[in-house]
Design a protein that fits this description.
There is one protein chain. This protein is mainly alpha-helical and 144 residues long. The chain folds into 2 domains: 60 residues; 65 residues. Helices cover 72% and strands 0% of the residues. It has 5 helices and no strands. The longest helix has 23 residues. The chain starts with a helix and ends in a 5-residue tail after the last helix. The model has no long low-confidence stretch (mean pLDDT 88).
């Protein structure tokens, strides 16, 4: 497969996802009357952004003259990361998000060649603290 063909396939896929989100976004009821931002504002922005950038990528890929063979490097890392994310979802349902994150963040970093224990621990603590502060503390949204 060439790089151009891969870009075209993924651009069409993300365009389809963007249009699906756009259609679903218009089904969200605005609870606020007037000019205030309602609950559909953020999903609408994401859907429009996805459509615009996928369309730009599709157009540049179609008119690109350079045909380069697509090389799959680090295929084992990609597969291990995908398996790790599936395990992460299972751990979230078995325990909770924070315990699953304490287990999975260091494993995913290890897969991606982060070998220093201090960096693994520091990255895990900072990530979980950031998620807790933003969602639980600032937004008031409890993480399952």
């Amino acid at each position: 497969m060439t790089f151009k063909l891969g870009n075209i396939i993924f651009s069409v896929a993300f365009l389809s996802i963007g249009f699906y989100f756009l259609i679903d976004t218009f089904q969200i009821q605005n609870l606020v009357s007037g000019n205030d931002v309602g609950p559909r504002a953020f999903p609408l922005l994401v859907a429009i952004g996805l459509i615009i950038f996928s369309g730009i990528n599709l157009m540049t890929s179609i008119f690109e003259k350079n045909i380069e063979k697509l090389k799959f490097q680090n295929f084992t890392k990609v597969v291990l990361t995908m398996v790790g994310l599936v395990i992460f979802l299972i751990l979230i349902s078995a325990f909770n998000f924070y315990i699953a994150s304490i287990i999975m963040i260091p494993i995913l970093l290890w897969i991606n060649d982060v070998r220093k224990v201090t960096r693994l621990g520091f990255s895990t603590v900072i990530t979980i603290a950031f998620i807790f502060v933003v969602f639980d503390f600032l937004l008031g949204i409890p993480i399952p």
